[in-house]
Amino acid sequence: MLLAFWSGVLAPLIAWSLWRSRASRALVAAATVASLLVFLVRRPRVAEAPAPPAEPPETPAPPANAHDRHRLEALIIERTARLRHRAEQLRTINLVGQRLVQIRNLDELLPFIASELANAFSFENVNIFLIGDDPTVLEARASAGKYGQETPHHRLRVGEQGIVGWVAGSGQPLMANDVSREPRYLFRDWLAETRAELAVPIRIGDQVLGVLDIESRHVDAFDETDLSTAQTLADLIAVAIENARLYDQTRELAVTEERNRLAREIHDTIAQGLTALTMQLELADAALPADPERAREAIARALGLARLNLEEARRSVQNLRSRSLTRKSLADAIRSLLEQSSKENGYYYSFRHNVEGEIAPAIENGVYRIVQEAVNNINRHAQASEVNVAIELNGNGLRLLVEDDGVGFDPHDPVLIGDGHFGMIGMQERAHLLGGTLHVRSTPGDGTAIELHIPVKPA
Q1: In the predicted model, what is the mean pLDDT of the chain?
Q2: Does 301 share its domain with 203?
Q3: Could you list the residue range(s) of the whole structural domain that residue 387 is in?
Q4: pLDDT of 39-56, one tens digit each?
């Protein structure tokens, strides 16, 4: 330490004194260099941080064990199943919405909805309850599933019996994923396997019209997505019920107006003519013993009135018929339509029937109009090479079938339904006005079949 002190501090001072006394410059220079060397050699060194050790080469992470792999696979499978389930729900909602456009008969629509729900989601039991004339009673109008065959005949008290009754009374949905813990659940022998139940109200505004009820054999079978889907379908059912009610009112009004028109026409023509005819016959009967000539004149006038009233009756009947049916039978009118259409469009046709003036004129007119619309659709869109039409009348009613081997189409395509591209709505309207049902079967590339059923008997 002393050597460092003298070398590092005092030596430069001595050198400076010698420099001031103008001593030998060589000696001063030597002393200065020596002191600097000693200082550099003796001064402490700053410790340098040690270099970090070289990192070992990266090694791949150990693979997940079998448990982790299985858990990941299970999660993927579960997520895929949920997405597929949701897609199926959306498809069912879309399909039901399309059927609402085509079907206005609740006895046909409600079983379709119940069946679609049961098939699409594998629900063991689907029921649709509606409130009838008695506002305190729910009656099952449709049922589908793998068990519970007695359900369609079942009735419940609104607000009192079971989950369905509670939902009808409160107007609120209820999802019970374990019915053993739900005090409002009503046990029924024919549904003893039920473990979960989902019920949603069918309502318009604040008015409850019924309940859509879904049951499963599995605990925790439903989630919020199922609840949302069920409520959407219940809302569609409510729209269908309201449409059916308005449709029935419109149809009843139209029928009433037509009956009034016919009543006025009969009163103004046929009834008055028959009254005059009766008077002439009574006059002839009174004059016959004493005045045969006068009696003959009365009889001649009566014959004239009878012929006139016969023409009036025929005219009234013809007013119910299409112009194409004015002087033709239904079979002749359809045959003429097919002959002309086949010549203009170059396809072969066949026509079979067993009706010859055996059904009411109004039915004839409706059937002809449906055939006419179907043939027009074939001409415009089908590109068919063969068309077959058949009309059969038997104990079950009238059956019409119109088939072609054309390009076909998707009957559930909302674009085709919405813009009337294939005239389906018009044919459905006519079928319902006749009290019948019309079904359209078609597949793109595989032709089209239109089938009409009307519960009529021979006239």
Answers
A1: 75
A2: no
A3: 323-454
A4: 444 444 444 445 555 555
Amino acid at 185: Y
Residues 327 and 440 reside in one and the same domain: yes
Span of 24-28, 106-110, 184-188, 326-330 with lowest mean pLDDT: 24-28
Interhelix angle for 66-102 vs 224-265, to 10°?
Answer: 10
| Last residue of one domain, picked from the residues 228, 244, 260 | 244
Count of domains forming the chain: 4
Alpha helices for 288-326 (secondary structure H): 292-318
pLDDT digits (tens, 9 = 90+) for 383-406: 999 999 999 988 888 999 999 999
| Contacts of residue 17, Cβ cutoff 8 Å, sequence gap at least 6 | none
CA atoms within 13 A of residue 118's CA, in its CB half-sphere: 22
What is the 8-class DSSP label of residue 132?
-
Both structure tokens of 370:
């449906």
Largest pairwise CA distance in the chain: 195
Q: Tokens representing 408?
A: 């076909």
DSSP H helical ranges for 346-442: 361-377, 414-418, 424-433
pLDDT value for 341: 86
* Contact call for residues 367 and 398 (beta carbons, < 8 A): yes
Last residue of a domain, one of 318, 353, 373: 318
Question: What CATH number is given to the structural domain containing 337?
Answer: 3.30.565.10
Nearest to 311 by CA among 273, 263, 349: 273
What's the pTM value of the predicted model, to 2 decimals?
0.44
Q: What is the 8-class DSSP label of residue 182?
A: -
Sequence-distant (6+) residues with CB within 8 A of 294 are 283, 284, 287
CA distance 256 to 101: 25
**Is there a contact between 389 and 396 (Cβ–Cβ < 8 Å)?**
no
Give the tens place of pLDDT for each residue, 307-324: 777 776 666 665 555 555
Q: How far apart are CA 276 and CA 288, in angstroms?
A: 18
What pLDDT shows up at residue 208? Answer: 92
Cα atoms found within 13 Å of the Cα of residue 202, Cβ hemisphere only: 25
- Structure tokens, 351: 């026509």
Domain match, 262 and 296 both: yes
